[in-house]
Specification:
Blueprint (H helix, E strand, L loop, with lengths): L1 H20 L9 E3 L5 H5 L8 H8 L4 E4 L6 E11 L2 E11 L5 E12 L1
Antiparallel strand pairs: 1-3, 2-3, 3-4, 4-5
Length: 115
């Protein structure tokens, strides 16, 4: 009888191992990188009035920034990427400030790629 118990246990473990190795692949969970800046938030920043400091307080540090030595302006960029089973969404938000740190330009570009 002890032989049968060992055989049944070994067979059960073998089926368990086969069952777990043959399972369907699990889709990776959605991944996000960066900060998503909504249209309502962008609409709250006013050209010529909103300062660079106010934007940084609201949004936090940008992904990148570039100073223009010729006119003293600065451009800040925030990049957001969301990837899931359907594809990738990438949004780049740009804001440019004059030499007095007042908002000159704000805008966002959106790129969607399907899988």
């Amino acid at each position: 009888m002890a032989g049968w118990n060992s055989l049944i246990t070994a067979a059960g473990l073998g089926l368990l191992a086969v069952g777990t190795s043959c399972s369907a692949p699990v889709a990776a969970p959605p991944a996000e990188e960066g900060q998503l800046i909504g249209q309502e938030t962008l609409d709250g920043f006013v050209h010529g009035i909103t300062t660079r400091e106010q934007v940084l307080m609201a949004l936090g540090p940008p992904t990148s920034q570039k100073a223009n030595a010729q006119d003293g302006s600065t451009t800040l960029a925030w990049h957001y990427v969301h990837t899931d089973a359907k594809g990738t969404l990438s949004i780049l938000t740009l804001m440019q400030f004059d030499a007095q740190d007042k908002l000159l330009f704000k805008g966002a570009s959106r790129d969607t790629r399907s899988r």
